[in-house]
Amino acid sequence: MTEVTEEECNVRHAIITAGTKGLGKKVTERLLAKGVSVTATYRSDRDKALELLEEFPSQKESIQLLQADVTNTSDLERVVKEAISRFGRVDYLINNAGPYIFERKKLMDYSTEEWEAMVRGNLDAVFHLMKQTVPHMREQRFGRIINYGFQGAGEASGWIYRSAFAAAKVGLVSLTKTIAYEEAEFGITSNMICPGKILEEWKEASIEDGKRVKDEETPIGRPGTGEDIARTIEFLCHEDSDMITGTIYEVTGGLDVIHRHL
After folding, report:
1. Which UniProt keywords apply (predicted)?
2. Residue 101, class by beta-carbon neighbours within 10 Å (0-12 exposed, 13-18 middle, 19+ buried)?
């Protein structure tokens, strides 16, 4: 075990689940660029995870990559333990990971195993990570918890063919708000990001990339990108963003104003 230096203890540290690809990778990149050290988890694609070390060669000591399945409680406990062991603190908990079933099916067509996996990965996992990290945040009297929802999650609207995922995320809306109230006295905030339509090819793209393409469906006229999500999270993690807590942030380019994208 590497001894934590005093300098490392003074650097903000983030745990980002599924932080090595997609939206999570853009958040990891954004925080690393701001001098934050990161423990990023990946489920199975180790080669993709290692690309982060190649992209940030001068910050290898600030990155810890850990394999973890968010549906496995012991994995989550290990992630927090290793983050604290390596960096001595945890300031930001970014709950980016969450299983999703792409097949469109009605509730009665879900198996018990599928339902339970959706709830474990999208709701239970956040509870377990909070249980492990909030005590450290309380001690520091500072913490930022960021959860992910979906467009319209705050309204608890129905979502045909996505019942299990939607039920777990809407439950997470309530948890996000409740923990915000309960932990405010310790300098801990809790907010939710609800991405709009961000297609797979845009999840690791920049805003500049998005501005080069026309999207007729989105009111602002361009596709959403991973950077849109990352910069919003960076803002919410700032020390001076303590007045923002228990909030559900729609990052949709205006889609949430006119309709839900199915």
Report:
1. Oxidoreductase
2. middle
Q: Are 117 and 99 in contact (CB under 8 A)?
A: yes
Task: Give the span between the Cα atoms of 233 and 238, in whole angstroms.
Answer: 9
Q: 6-251: what fold?
A: Rossmann fold (3.40.50)
Domain residue spans of the chain? 6-251
Read off the pTM. Answer: 0.93
pLDDT digits (tens, 9 = 90+) for 193-211: 999 999 999 999 999 999 9
Long-range CB pairs of 57-66, under 8 A, 24+ apart, other chains included? 59/32, 62/11, 62/32, 62/36, 62/37, 62/38, 63/32, 63/37, 63/38, 64/37, 64/38, 64/39, 64/40, 65/20, 65/39, 65/40, 65/41, 66/39, 66/40, 66/41, 66/42
